[in-house]
Amino acid sequence: MLVAAHQQVTRKWWKTRRQKFDLYVSELVLTEARAGDVQIAQQRIELIEGLPLLPVTGAILELAERLIDTGPIPRKATRDAIHIAVARVSDCKYLLIWNCRHIANAELETAIRRVLERYGYEMPVLCTPEKLMGGGRHGG
Length: 140
Description:
Blueprint: H1 2-16, E1 25-26, H2 27-34, H3 38-48, E2 53-54, H4 58-69, H5 78-89, E3 94-96, H6 106-118, E4 125-127
Parallel strand pairs: 1-2, 3-4
Helix pairs in contact: 4-5
């Protein structure tokens, strides 16, 4: 039921809010989008087709390793560290994601911020589509 709710919010965000942002995907996102059920994977690929691609560079892998070595992200979640590093090294303001275990996690946010700042990076906003729906007085 929770997954269905997340999918519904994501679809709504994609239809009503995506045009308010410059969207990018990383090579890792493409790999993840292609995984699983072939028909559903094709739907995901069609949604992100044509978005600018952010490569996973040496600087990104280095920052991801620092997020793991200093503790906020466990080694088993290396891909999560790479998502954060791609967003930060590529100077993205937001990292929109449903991963609330290691990324959009308030308990880990302070530790992630400390690591990023130690290496000269500002923290991107780590959030789910729900948190980026707008609706504020100024149109979000």
